[in-house]
Amino acid sequence: MALPWDFHPIEGERVRLDLLRDDDLDDLYALQSDPEVCRYLLYEPRSRERVAHVLARDAAAARLESPHDYLQPAIRDRDGRFLGTMYFELHSVDPDRTAEIGWILAPHAQGEGYASEAARLLLGLAFEELGLHRVYAELDPRNGASVALCERLGMRHEGHFVEHMWLKGEWTDTGHYAILEHEWAARRA
């Protein structure tokens, strides 16, 4: 594995993954305080103070080296506008080489392919640069947009855990999707 890995911006055709910055607070707050955006997330809409704390914490996450190290880069368009965030956490380094991926996109940016491109950039990092074996996503299966994104990325539906967690006053299911290094390589060929 190519660890440690220190964050540097990752460029795509239409998006750039970059560290969160202090001036992202308004956009991040708009995202994380929106009840519709938070509907399928693990948290309720957040206060501005909570988002400021999260921003400071996640902006400092810039190195992957050990299990539970994570990145939460901003997704930006070519003009630098904030579109959302990605999530990438190492879960195992040796011997399993596994990570989790996730995304949150601002409502105005949904349906334009930005999340697909950003996720492909992180999967490229995972498999082509870091040498990971497996990347997975866990999500609420009612979130059709995230399910469709997993499928577009070539992730396989591995499981559906019924009433897996008590969340926001109800039992919720968890969907599990994953892609392996050789599956990613075959898609890229």
Automatic annotation (TrEMBL):
Signal peptide residues on this chain, from the entry's feature table: none
Question: What are the N-acetyltransferase domain coordinates in residue numbering?
Answer: 15-172
Q: Name one GO molecular function term.
A: protein N-terminal-serine acetyltransferase activity
Phosphoprotein is among the record's keywords: no
InterPro entries for this protein? Acyl_CoA_acyltransferase, GNAT_dom, Ribosomal_N-acetyltransferase
What keywords would UniProt list here?
Transferase
List GO terms (cellular component aspect). cytoplasm
Q: PANTHER family given for it? A: RIBOSOMAL-PROTEIN-SERINE ACETYLTRANSFERASE
| Listed name of the protein | GNAT family N-acetyltransferase
- Species of origin reads Microbacterium ulmi
Source organism phylogeny? Bacteria, Bacillati, Actinomycetota, Actinomycetes, Micrococcales
